[in-house]
Amino acid sequence: MNQKVFAPWDDPNQKPLIQFQNVTKKFGTFTAIDDLSLDIYEREFFALLGPSGCGKTTMMRMLAGFETPTSGTIRLSGQDLGQTAPNKRAVNMMFQSYALFPHLSVWENIAFGLKRESTDKDAIAARVEEMLRLTRLGKFAKRKPHQISGGQRQRVALARSLAKSPKLLLLDEPLGALDKKLREETQFELMDIQEKTGTTFVIVTHDQEEAMTVASRVAVMDEGRLVQVATPADIYEAPNSVYVADFIGDVNIIEGNATPNGDRVRIDWAEGQPEIWGTAQKPVASGERISFAIRPEKVTISKEKPEDRRNLLEGEVIDIAYLGNISTFHVKVGNGQIIKAQSANTRRLANRDITWEDRVWLTFTETAGVLLEG
Amino acid sequence: MRRFTLIAVPYLWLLALFLVPFLIVLKISLSDYALSIPPYAPTLDFSAGWQGIKDLMSKLDFENYVFLTEDALYWKAYLSSLKIALISTVLTLLVGYPIAYGMARAAPEWRPTLLMLVILPFWTSFLIRVYAWMGILASEGVLYQFLSFLGIVDEPLKILSTNTAVYIGIVYTYLPFMILPIYAALEKMDDSLIEAAEDLGCSRMSAFWLITIPLSKSGIIAGCFLVFIPTIGEFVIPSLLGGSDTLMIGKVLWEEFFSNRDWPVASAVAIILLLILVIPIVLFQRNQQLQREAEG
């Protein structure tokens, strides 16, 4: 039996939970969000990714109700959110600073939202206990926020924002304050909790690794616009622009003139250098100026000249970045361009045969890279 | 040894400037009124040595304290002082909290200026400022002229020499002591707490009651004590702005001391006042301690 792939965005019958329709937000003369349209579906774990100042936080604050769009509409389950106040939305937010109430215990923090809408003490207590179990905070229920660790505080903030069973949970850089190891653990915990509760999550982050790990879809933003919205794999393997390719992970960009040849494209990129062969995702005009983007891990490096390879560049090792599990080689090819190649360190460091100033050969397949405009 | 020296400095200071004067006043309060210089007896005869101290101790008694309980004036003055201090503390809080809140909410670049404006009155002598209020509140003073210019009043004001004038004077004088601790508490409050409260279903108003007020509690308590404690013994404001019916223990004390020249009774009044003040002072210290622990 085939497991059904979760991809509501490909199903035209699915109704989006959130719809941004031509939303623009201006602060004075500064345009934070520029005519943006986006659909987010139920049960999605949606990541807004971009450098600081790209408008991702503004989008989140508009969903929470702390900002209202200058023009355009935002719909939640088909209903226009319009001027609805933050306390009247079925949307909860987990703040970057966690914003835990310092004068209340962990228990009271989680119960805070529940007490605002109900007076049924037993129901509130049951829900708080459920949240404490979900986030494994039972032992700390009576403590005040300043008496627990950063990771525990993060879980309290999550429990508090989930307690009211919102239709949509917003997470503003939820793991920013944690150290790397804890952050990685917590990423999986978040995905786990998202799956258990079935809540739609929208996460804002500037950490591309985090976005790739947790999200079902990632939106890469720049200057108030969406550059690409796709699954993590598509964003990485098939970026739609140099900006996305460069923002997500490491990439080599080689600019050149294209000449289509069947389903392949020949790229002449430098005088005296062998041409590069790539595969076009969409039709390219002859002589068009294009960028060829290839990830370092898709470039093979070797000291012996491989036989029968179409894409073959010769160069000299300038730098080696040793990262433990992998090494990145910076290779200067004929025209002075640096091309990065990565290889897994399957052998011990002492046995590494490539070193500084070695003459090496770089190869990659015709389908390894992507062709991008401009 | 170095630690001892370090601790010794404040203790010596307290000994010389608090404990010794306190013991002198205590001793006078246990003495008898006398028509002499100084106007009390007995006095300590240093030349008699140990015997002198013994003689002195045998002549001391609690007569003046008994007298304080017999004359209704004194306990009425104490109660009236407490009442005036309590009411003015509440009034100062009601005026000071919104100001502190406004300052804490103001744009960061404005805050130092606003803070400066709150402290600015201290640049002028306290006495001069109270005299200025006499000019403002006088029956045909500045306030009257302004109000009659606006056509609001047509007969002279009856504010000066009443308790109302005393309240105005106290609120005006002690307002910075209320504003500063509350501002300090509100200023370090994270704005996202209010947003979180609203996000979890609070209205603006309930977020204020459930989050802002509890988080500024330590500032409110500190401000209230800083106003309440000095107001109980306040003397200048009631004697300059208050009338003959304004009964405050500071005024009584002054009159005992300078008008009646009855130093022993005046000292007894002062000792009782000190004992009354010890309670709020201890409570105030406890509040500061708890706050430090909560932050630690």
Structural commentary:
The complex is a heterodimer of chains A (374) and B (296). Chain A is α+β, with helices and mostly antiparallel strands. Chain A has two domains: 8-245, P-loop containing nucleotide triphosphate hydrolases (Rossmann fold, 3-Layer(aba) Sandwich), CATH 3.40.50; 250-373, Nucleic acid-binding proteins (OB fold (Dihydrolipoamide Acetyltransferase, E2P), Beta Barrel). Helix content of chain A is 23%, strand content 33%. Chain A is built from eight helices and 20 strands. Chain A has helices at residues 56-64, 106-117, 121-134, 150-162, 180-197, 208-214, 232-237, 242-247, and strands at 18-27, 30-40, 45-49, 71-76, 79-80, 91-94, 168-172, 200-205, 217-222, 225-230, 252-261, 264-268, 276-279, 289-294, 300-302, 312-322, 326-333, 338-344, 359-363, 370-373. In chain A, helix 2 (106-117) packs across helix 3. The longest helix of chain A is centred in the middle third of the chain and has 18 residues, at 180-197. Chain A is globular and about 80 Å long. The radius of gyration of chain B is 24 Å and the shape is globular. Chain B has helices spanning 2-29, 50-59, 63-70, 72-105, 111-119, 126-137, 142-149, 163-187, 191-199, 204-215, 217-232, 236-241, 249-259, 263-295, and strands spanning 32-33, 40-41. The model of chain B has no long low-confidence stretch (mean pLDDT 90). In chain B, helix 1 (2-29) packs antiparallel against helix 14, helix 9 (191-199) crosses helix 10 and helix 13 runs antiparallel to helix 14. Chain B has a single domain, classed as MetI-like (MetI-like fold), CATH 1.10.3720. Helix content of chain B is 75%, strand content 1%. In chain B, strand 1 and strand 2 (40-41) form a beta hairpin. In chain B, strands 1-2 form a two-stranded antiparallel sheet. By secondary structure, chain B is mainly α. Chain B contains 14 helices and two strands. The chains are: A alpha+beta (374), B mainly alpha (296).
